[in-house]
Amino acid sequence: MFAGFEVKLTYGDDLVNIDRSVMAALARTVWECGGPVIRVEDGEVRHGIDRVIFPAEVLAEQPCFGENVLLRLPLCDAYHAHVSAAVHKTLVQSGVKASYLLSTGRKEHVKLCFAPYPERPGLSFWRRLFTREPTVAELLRGYEFTVIAHDPDLAYDRPFWHSFIPGP
User: Fold this and answer.
1) For 137-160, how does the pLDDT look when each residue is reduced to its tens digit (9 = 90+)?
2) What contacts 61, CB < 8 A, 6 or more positions away?
3) pTM above 0.70, yes or no
4) Residues 56-71: pLDDT tens digits?
5) Is it the case that residue 111 has pLDDT exceeding 60?
6) In three state form, how does the secondary structure of the chain look?
C-alpha cells in the first residue's frame, strides 16, 4: 500500500527566514503524517518516526517528557507497553529507582511524568529534609533512552531540507 503526497515549494523573494520556516513546516508535516520523506531527485529518505536515542536525563528534566516526541496513540496498549519497557530498561541500566506516570495527557499524546527525586525509602525524615539528594535527571545523566518516537532532529537536518529550497 502506498500513501503520500507531493510538496512543491514556490515563494517570492520577499520572505526572510524561508530556510527555518520551510524546514519546520516540512518536518511538522512528516510528523503529522507519520511517514517518510523521499526526495524524488535522488531517492534520499528521512523518517519522521524512527527508533530514537535520547540522553536519559531528558526524561526527568521537565515535569513531563513526551509531548510532540512520543507518538499520539492514546488507545494503543502495545505502544504504551513499548514506552514502559524502554523506560524500565533505562532505569534498570542506570540503577535509578524512580516513580513515574505514563499517561495520554489532555492532548492525547503519551507522556512520562517523573517525581523530581528518586525513591529513598531508607532515609530518615530528618535526613531527607536536610540532605540534598540528586534529582532523577542528575542520576540518569550518561545513560540513554531508546524508543520509537518522532525524530526531533529531523527539523534541523539542513543538508536534507536545503535541497527542497530553491537557491536564489
Assistant:
1) 888 999 999 999 888 777 777 777
2) 137
3) no
4) 999 988 888 888 788 8
5) yes
6) CCCCCCCCCCCCCCCCCHHHHHHHHHHHHHHHHCCEEECCCCCCEEECEEEEEEECCHHHHCCEECCCCCCCCCCCHHHHHHHHHHHHHHHHHHCCCCCEEEECCCCCCCEEEECCCCCCCCCCHHHHHHCCCCCHHHHHCCCEEEEEEECHHHHHCHHHHHCCCCCC
